[in-house]
Amino acid sequence: MIPTDPAERTALAGEYVLGTLDARTTAAMRAALETDAGLRAEVEAWERRLAPLVDTVAPAEPPADLLPRIEAALDA
Fold first, then answer.
1. How far apart (Å, rounded) are the C-alpha atoms in residues 47 and 39?
2. In the chain, which stretches have pLDDT less than 70?
């Protein structure tokens, strides 16, 4: 399931770090990271690359009524 093409592996590692993968692919990545040093290096590179962004965005708390509004919109 983990690609062998270097460009695809780099992209997948970035998506993993960003948290945009579906549950199945995330689980496959976690398993692969246990034994694949190259993939771990890709993930670590993305983590270093993206770390400065953490300091540029203030944490935000969603409004308390957000979930009820979403549920109401889905029921409409």
1. 12
2. none
Pick the CATH number of 6-75 from 1.10.10, 1.20.272, 3.30.70, 1.10.3470: 1.10.10
**Cα distances (angstroms) measured from residue 34 to each of 13, 38, 44:** 14, 11, 13
Instruction: Say which residue the tokens 């670590």 belong to.
Output: 44
Own/partner long-range contacts of 9-14 (Cβ < 8 Å, ≥24 apart): 9/38, 9/39, 9/42, 10/42, 13/39, 13/42, 13/43, 13/45, 13/46, 14/46
13 vs 5: CA distance, rounded Å: 12
**pLDDT the model gives residue 76:** 80
